[in-house]
């Protein structure tokens, strides 16, 4: 009877996961993106027109919110990998997100939570008071915390629904995850932004709030069919143990034979279900953490029968290689930071440019394109690139390279980096044309002149961000994949904050401290030199590209010894 029960449980586990879980998982991601993009794409408009903030302060607020929402995934990933698991982290974060969006909707609906409208007869507008801004920031903080639990876990949770033997489906998942996310963003920057500009911010924020509530219920409904890996303990503790052990044994001579370094399959089993990391020659100082000394009290070099060591004195090769893998990833991670300074312009100065242009569909049309909806010309090229890449380019490249993903993620990222530099350079020239052809008080040049720069950014995003996600997922230690996804969002966070500092510095230096109406980035772009700011960013992108190529050529891929461990995987994934 017991064997039949175990057999039935094993069959149940095999039936879990796979493509049937995707609607439940994607529903959660769709709602999160509908909320955050519907807000971020038009937040500059809300801050300047409803809260009456200066353009530079509004741009800084947008990038700071984006930076915070991209920093909190580190906390969510830590909880998921170490203690709670990805399912419960996503569910709890979705609930927090729902509270934040509900509070934000209330602040847009209730008149006493925002300043009075600007005087109809002209005159200065009253900016939001400190307590009104406090309500706004509290709502945004809750939304950022919710995003911190969803963003790093949804990617890893979705990918783990496919076992290692279905590797091709995993790489396709990343493309279609981003495609699904991009489609939602199209809806957000068109339908949601239109509602915000023409119906009201209460409805414009209320719609994604309701969607967030529905997604929480939908995600929870998929619980019986999810394939769930249990948390494997704090990854940061393991990394600290390796570092401390290496420092303690720093005076020991290096081990000439890597085969004598400490191995313990039983100890590493929960964190190496897909295969163990093998020894590499770089960063040899850390190898000292795996040297067996007399004080360790270990009589054998490994195996299931080996006694448990004090992990603050002795680490296994697998654990040492986990830390090595993360250290090797750091330079590639850093290269992604400056790219975000370029993409951050989509929700800040691209939006300001659109607002300063003729937004009519045609000279005889009375319909005005909402500035936030211009992002559709970024999203459609991005989605088209993803679809063509997955369906046409990858199968062809796979025949030539033998790689499941077609080309390496490092090459994919490099192509995106190059396109971002060219797109930012192009944006500067288009800004010159816009300013020179805009008549004072007239409609000026058509907003559709911005389409080329939006489109180039969209194609660049399809290469850069998906390549970045693939890189972090594939090269991170298996037990740290939520943490690795958080590193992706941390690069966005760091890039957003860098952009905010760059905007502040450029505005201060170019204006000489004379106020918001002067310098390269004044409230009235027709009096500024926005193209100079774009070219500063383009120059940084070129320098960053050179640095990235140097790092990519020297990168050492994670060495993994694949093992047949289906029984172990089934045991570890049982609910």
UniProtKB/TrEMBL annotation:
Gene Ontology MF term list: transmembrane transporter activity
Entry keywords, A to Z: Membrane, Transmembrane, Transmembrane helix
GO cellular component: membrane
GO terms of biological process kind: oligopeptide transport
InterPro entries documented for this protein: MFS_trans_sf, POT_fam, PTR2_symporter_CS
Transmembrane segments: 87-113, 133-154, 175-195, 201-226, 332-351, 371-389, 409-430, 450-473, 485-506, 532-552
Subcellular location per the Swiss-Prot or TrEMBL entry: Membrane
SUPFAM superfamilies: MFS general substrate transporter
Pfam family, one: PTR2
Domain of life of the source: Eukaryota
Coiled-coil portions: none
Membrane topology classification: Multi-pass membrane protein
Membership in a protein family: Belongs to the major facilitator superfamily. Proton-dependent oligopeptide transporter (POT/PTR) (TC 2.A.17) family.
PANTHER family given in the database record: OLIGOPEPTIDE TRANSPORTER-RELATED
Record's protein name: Putative nitrite transporter
Species per Swiss-Prot/TrEMBL record: Apostasia shenzhenica
Lineage of source species: Eukaryota, Viridiplantae, Streptophyta, Embryophyta, Tracheophyta
